[in-house]
Amino acid sequence: MESAKVAEELGVKEVGVSDRWRHLAGRSLGWMGEMLKLDTADIDGSEKAVREAMGHYEVLREKEPESAEWKEGIAMNKTRLADVYLTRGDFDTAEELYREAVAMRRELMEADQDNPVRVQRFAVALNRIGELFLSRERFDDSYEAFVLCRAVSEHLLKLEPDNRRWLTDLGGVLFAWRDSCRAREDWERSLTLNEELMVVQKKLLEGDGERIEPYYNLSMSQRAHAEVLAMLSERWSEEVEWLRKSEETLVEMEGDEKVSEWVKEALEGQKALYAQAREGEE
Q1: Is the separation of the CB atoms in 122 and 112 below 8 Å?
Q2: How do residues 59-83 score in pLDDT, each as one tens digit?
C-alpha cells in the first residue's frame, strides 16, 4: 500500500514512539497539509504533509486493525489528498480517493449511527463527491450522492435538533442538489428543493438576525425561485411576487456603508428581471 511505503520511507516505525504520539503527529501533519493548500497554495507541500500523516496512521492500522482511530485519520487525509488532486485537475484520481473516503466514512458511521461527529463526516464526504460529479456534469451520479447526503443530514438533525451547524449543513446540501437539478434542466424538482432550502434559511435567519449573510442567502434563493418560475410556462406574475419577496428581504439587511452598497448592487441586479417579468405580464 502506498501510504505504508511512505511510512517506511519516513521512518515512522522507530522503536519507542507511542501510538498516542503517532496519532497526534498524524493529526498535526494533516492540518498542516490543509493549511498549506488553503493559505499558501503550496500544493506539493500539502501533498507531502498529508502523505506523511497517512504514513503514521498506516502504522496504527498494522498494530490495531480494528481500531477506529486510524480509520478516522486515513479517511480524513484521503479527502485532503483528493482535494490536492482536484486542484491539479486530476479528476479521476480525486474521484478514486473521494470514493475510498466515502466507503470508510460509511463504515465508521454504520458502526456508531448515534455519534453526531461520525454521521456529519459521512455527510460531508458524500457532499464532496456529489459536487465533484456536478462539476463534471455527471448529473445522475451527483443526484444519487445528494439524495443520500440529505438523508444522512436529516438523521443528524434528529440526533441534535438544536444544532445550527447541522441545519447549515443541510442547507448546503439542498443548495448543491438544487443546482444539480438546474444544471440538468429539471426545473420542477429544482423549485421543490429551493422551497425546502428557503425553509432552512428562514430558520437560520430567525436565530441569527444580526448578521447580513442569512438575509442575503435567503434573498438570493427567492430570486432564484423567480428566475425558474419565468422559465416554466412563463409564470410572470409569480416571478414578480418572488422578486418582491427577494427585495423585501434585502432591504431588511442593516449595517454599515459597505452593507448598504451591497444591498444597492443586489437591488440593481433585479431591475432587468423585473422589466422582463412585467413585459411578460403585458
Answers
A1: no
A2: 888 888 888 888 888 999 999 999 9
pLDDT at 97: 96
Dihedral sign, CA of 15, 17, 18, 23? negative
Kindly tell me the sign of the dihedral angle through the C-alpha atoms of 87, 89, 91, 92.
negative
Q: Would you say the C-alpha torsion 120, 121, 122, 127 has a positive or negative sign?
A: positive
Residue with grid cell 500544493, as numbered in its chain: 43
* Whole-prediction pTM: 0.78
All residue ranges of the chain with pLDDT < 70 are 1-17, 207-210, 233-236, 254-264, 266-267, 269-282
